[in-house]
Write a sequence for this structure.
């Protein structure tokens, strides 16, 4: 009987772990929020149990939270590294497509000086939805360049901070341009976009990864 209970416990633990991994992949932001709420509830519960004299229960609750936290970090790091394996960099003229839109850098103008170079990127965003107008949720989406050292170069002060927060008519294409200034010492440059911290879209497993990984999609600028 004891071995059956142990086997059942292992199976239930495996099922719970598999369910968590699935939810982290599909609903990453929801899992992060639930983790934050659960962490707060765990610490409150631990304090209440400890000062009410139920120190064994407080210890078990805190131990369970520590095991979950370790599993969560290990899983989120694994997911981030797995996504890294499928990361790709396209060249100007090639489109990056997601959901119902395709983005591409069409042309690059360079203006170089001794210490820095200005890059003006002419881009388009095309809607693949032929039936209705699409609003692309670019609010909070930070567009930036980064180099081979991982250094980030943001849009200059005064530029539209959310150039991809636009509405595209059904089946049509919107064109735009953005300019970045980068030190001349940068050898490789990539364009990417990432939701700013503390936005719902940014609360994905990779954000809590202990491994530093590159964005999963980018445009090679040079």
């Amino acid at each position: 009987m004891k071995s059956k209970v142990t086997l059942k416990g292992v199976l239930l633990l495996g099922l719970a772990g598999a369910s968590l991994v699935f939810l982290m992949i599909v609903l990453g932001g929801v899992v992060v929020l639930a983790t934050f709420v659960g962490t707060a509830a765990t610490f409150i519960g631990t304090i209440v149990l400890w000062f009410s004299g139920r120190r064994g229960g407080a210890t078990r609750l805190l131990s369970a939270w520590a095991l979950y936290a370790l599993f969560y970090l290990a899983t989120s790091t694994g997911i981030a590294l797995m996504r890294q394996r499928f990361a790709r960099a396209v060249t100007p003229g090639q489109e990056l497509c997601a959901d119902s839109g395709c983005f591409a850098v069409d042309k690059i103008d360079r203006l170089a000086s001794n210490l820095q170079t200005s890059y003006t990127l002419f881009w388009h965003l095309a809607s693949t939805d032929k039936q209705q107008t699409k609003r692309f949720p670019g609010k909070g989406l930070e567009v930036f360049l980064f180099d081979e050292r991982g250094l980030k170069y943001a849009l200059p002060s005064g530029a539209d901070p959310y150039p991809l927060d636009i509405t595209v008519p059904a089946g049509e294409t919107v064109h735009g341009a953005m300019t970045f200034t980068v030190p001349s010492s940068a050898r490789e440059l990539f364009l990417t976009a990432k939701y700013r911290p503390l936005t719902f879209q940014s609360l994905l497993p990779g954000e809590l990864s202990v491994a530093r990984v590159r964005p999963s999609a980018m445009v090679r600028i040079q």
